Amino acid sequence: MPETAMTESVQISIHGKKYSVKSAAFAVDPHEVASLVDSKMQELSKVRGIPSTMDLAILAALNIAQELLELKRKIGESKQESDGRLNDLIRVLEKEVENITP
């Protein structure tokens, strides 16, 4: 029989409402995730005065998604820059190795 991973259930709270989150393994603490979403919703509620929880949740999701995509873009740019520098170093080293006479 194939082994099934044990699922863990964690209780979280977002914007005053309790949720149960289940997963076989959490790469990130669900309470930390809930805290981020909750704080983003609280921030938007104070700034925009939006009474609808659904609207707050959607705006929070959009803000968090934008932050995520900006970070991904920055990481991609950093990786390209690092790869370029690494390739430059490899070319310099290859030239130096070619200049060494046995």
Report on the structure:
This protein is of the alpha+beta class and 102 residues long. It has a domain at 8-72. The protein contains two helices and two strands, in the order E-E-H-H. It has helices at 30-48, 53-99; strands at 8-14, 17-23. It has a two-stranded antiparallel sheet. The longest helix has 47 residues, at 53-99.
Approximate strand percentage: 5-15%
| pLDDT averaged residue by residue | 87
Unreliably modeled segments: none
Helix content: 55-70%
Helix/strand class: alpha+beta
SSE order: EEHH
Q: Identify the overall geometry.
A: elongated
Give the strand tally: 2
What is the gist of this entry?
The protein is α+β, with helices and mostly antiparallel strands. The chain has helices at 30-48, 53-99, and strands spanning 8-14, 17-23.
Give me the secondary-structure topology.
Blueprint: E1 8-14, E2 17-23, H1 30-48, H2 53-99
Key terms for this structure?
102 residues; alpha+beta; two-stranded antiparallel sheet; 2 helices; 14% strand; elongated
